[in-house]
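Troubleshooting: if your tokenizer reports a length mismatch, compare your output against this known-good record of 466 residues.
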Amino acid sequence: MTSESKKKFRVPHTYVILFGMIIIMAILTYVIPAGQYQKVELNDRMVVDPNSYSTVEANPAKPFDILKAFPKGLAAAQSIVFFIFIVGGSFNVLNQTGAIEAGIGKIALGLKGKETLLIPIIVFVFSLGGGTIGMAEEAIVFVPIGIALARALGYDAVVGMAIVSLGAAAGFTSGFMNPFTVGVAQGIAEVPMFSGIGMRLVIWVCTLLIVIIYIYRYANKVKADPMNSLVHELEAEEKDKAIDLSTIKQLTKRDIIVLLIFGLGMLLLVFGVFKYGWYITEIAAIFLAIGILSGLVTGTSLDDIAKQFIAGAKDMATGALVVGLARGILIIMEGSMIIDTIVYSLAAVITSLPKVISAIGMLLVQSFLNLIIPSGSGLAATTMPIMSPLSDVIGLTRQTAVLAYQFGDGITNSIVPTSGVLLANLSIAKIKYEEWFKFVGPLMILWTLMASIFMIIATLINYGPF
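Known-good structure output:
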């Protein structure tokens, strides 16, 4: 056997994986019939009529459609694509002031010898955001901070991203008071808003414990031997940028002003999201203001601010383009009108299963559908009008159907390559999708097993009120 054949198999580049998925989906448009549900208005929201599915004229993807999927995907996901560029550029301006480094260094010194407190504290804080205001996109801007802090304490970028993104995901998955997922789903299922919160709080605690232990075990391995890091090559490249606690600079008055600007910006962000429903555009605008003001406060010229912004945005190009490529998969499915057919077929399969198995099947179906409908409210509007009456037929409570949706939407957000938020996080963290997949894959299995147990419990106790 030659040395060439002995080489380990290398996971293809993320672009190759996603483009391959576009091709596979295009082929499937020749196999899966085109179909469509009619939409009706319910509580000021357009949802599907569960009894309206019908096949329509086939419109399979052409070879040229495969190539057009990328630019169309970029156009469809433009808000997230430009959000990544603006946050990347603005954060670089903020980072160049040195205030973030000094602030993180001070926190890291305070945690010296107590590094293990970092993981539960930050995971808990972000889980509160995920469980109440549905924090997802809002957490993206905190990923660089999490990574810098993790590195200062001897961990890696994976730990830094995980404590922020998986913390928010833990709260988002439990959704104990999340109006954008559980609230919408319960409204469509016609069950009282935020009813059943007791079980969701138990789910929140279990989800938190699992993710904290999971991150903690990985972090300890990295701290013991940096070569155990899944991103050790990235860490070697970023070594010069890591915060050295032995030479950390003292906080100056200007640094404190910059940190106050950042803190006030984050408070404004949370207030705007909760009070006025701010989204990607407003969050990007706030971070742009933070970057510009931080540069001006520290005496940076406008020309240098512009150059720093461009340099930061340039670093985000690879990840930003990934978002458009991933959206191309959905472009193919939407253009060929096969999404509703997939939903209809999966719902039909569930009805043929035993009651308890149907509950788990409903969870798995929602998890799969989140791959092709990676929007919490969008998934609820598409699936809950179907799953709610379906649960009546099967003998499950509608609250159980909401629980299946909540798990399916929340858990897989951290791994599906069509999630714009995940890809934005990876872009800012400079972590390859395949590296993150290796890290988070086992956790997704653990969370899914946990969710399955709760689905069985919900079935046995007739989780209600109805």
